[in-house]
Design goal:
Blueprint (H helix, E strand, L loop, with lengths): L1 E4 L2 E4 L18 E4 L20 H13 L3 E4 L12 H15 L5 H4 E5 L10 H18 L2 E4 L3 H6 L3 H14 L4 E6 L16 H14 L4 E7 L3 H10 L5 E4 L5 H7 L2 E4 L1 H4 L1 H15 L3 H25 L7 H11 L18 H13 L6 H14 L3
Helix pairs in contact: 1-2, 2-4, 4-6, 6-7, 11-12, 12-14, 13-14, 14-15
């Protein structure tokens, strides 16, 4: 099957049929950070309250669970701080946890972001702590696990590491079970520059590690999104025993997972079938020895290698617009009926960018129904005058 893309004609590969195995991986704990599906008939113009297609949004979470992946919800992939307001976030948290119950313990299957975005004008540490407390309570009341997200308000107000430790210490004291701490780099959100109260990565890491060691009993793991492989490896080695490192590195995830990191990744929203198959190969490798283990590791590498180029394209600068590529692939694959996003974010990437995402997704075997994908890609090109 051929399609004319910007830059020339492209011949699609044969589609790949990925196995669907709902049993989670055994060698790593893996979350896919999930997007929300906008209501195509809703007013999702920039600045408007989010209008969400809840049925399609929940259907996509079932898709992720069907591949044995856990769901990280109400995070930056779901457009927190980029269009998903607190009213919609509260409903997303409630519905996702409720939807998970037939599959098992919601706290094991869904972890949701708790932040301070409903109090953007918070001007002191007390107000910021109270905002965190409200969102932590919302997540816990739903029965989901808690991911403590980075706070723009805290980044603005804090005078140094001591202020971060004060706020996070109180927030961790409110948790009814260990939480995941999220370190989101400024490439994902420029307003988080200098997080942990230090201007450089080394000083910030020292502050962060001090906090984690002081509260290790209440920290399930840390999710790090800095796109720096060597830094993550060093940080992973410095964590207290029992505290996981969940890679958030959408550029270097195959080698980081292979070498010992767990995962909480936005790209796994888009590549769930391939990611699940690769994790099964990694499970098999770690249960085997010698040539058999090497064979399974080679399969792990073979599956994930072509997804890296796709991920690097989706997450290219400006990185925070990666959600557009994630939703675009969900639309191409029939998980939603419209290429529409809250806050009008479908316009954040160019047609040339999206055409390259199409091509790379096909090369990675991630266009489930090529005829549908081609039909939708042609419609997008046509509406853009191509």
């Amino acid at each position: 099957m051929r399609i004319d893309l910007p830059g020339g004609a492209y011949e699609l590969r044969e589609p790949v049929t990925w196995p669907v195995v709902a049993t989670p991986a055994t060698s790593r704990v893996v979350y896919a950070a999930a997007h929300v599906v906008a209501d195509p008939l809703g007013d999702n113009t920039p600045g408007s309250p989010a209008a969400v297609d809840w049925e399609a949004t929940l259907r996509f979470r079932r898709h992720l669970w069907s591949h044995g992946l856990r769901v990280a919800d109400a995070m930056d992939t779901a457009q927190r701080n980029m269009g998903l307001d607190w009213a919609a976030t509260r409903e997303l948290i409630r519905l996702s946890a409720e939807e998970a119950r037939p599959y098992g313990d919601p706290a094991a299957l869904v972890a949701c972001g708790a932040g301070t975005d409903h109090a953007p004008d918070a001007a002191d540490l007390h107000t910021i702590t109270a905002a965190y407390a409200e969102q932590v309570e919302t997540v816990q009341a739903a029965g989901a696990g808690v991911i403590v997200m980075a706070s723009r308000a805290l980044a603005r107000v804090a005078a140094g590491p001591r202020d971060y430790h004060q706020v996070y210490g109180k927030v961790l004291g409110l948790a009814d079970r260990p939480v995941i701490l999220h370190w989101l780099g400024e490439m994902f959100d420029p307003q988080l520059a200098g997080y942990w109260g230090a201007p450089g990565v080394d000083a910030a890491t020292e502050s962060f590690l001090e906090l984690v060691h002081a509260h290790a009993a209440m920290v399930d793991g840390v999710k790090v999104s800095l796109l720096d492989e060597q830094h993550e490896v060093r940080l992973r080695a410095a964590l207290p025993e029992g505290v996981r490192l969940y890679t958030g590195d959408d550029f270097n995830y195959p080698s980081l997972i292979r070498s010992g990191s767990h995962a909480l990744l936005g790209i796994f929203d888009a590549i769930a079938p391939a990611a699940a198959a690769a994790l099964r190969a990694l499970d098999a490798a770690e249960a085997a020895t010698g040539e058999e283990a090497a064979h399974h590791l080679a399969r792990y590498d073979e599956i994930l290698a072509p997804t890296v180029a796709l991920s690097r394209k989706i997450f290219e600068t400006p990185t925070y617009h990666y959600k557009t590529g994630i939703v675009f692939l969900a639309w191409l694959n029939g998980h939603q009926d419209a290429f529409a996003m809250v806050n009008g974010a479908q316009s954040a990437r160019s047609v040339r960018h999206l055409a390259e995402v199409f091509r790379l997704a096909d090369q990675a075997g991630l266009l489930a129904d090529p005829e549908l994908a081609v039909r939708r890609m042609r419609a997008l090109l046509e509406v853009n005058g191509l």
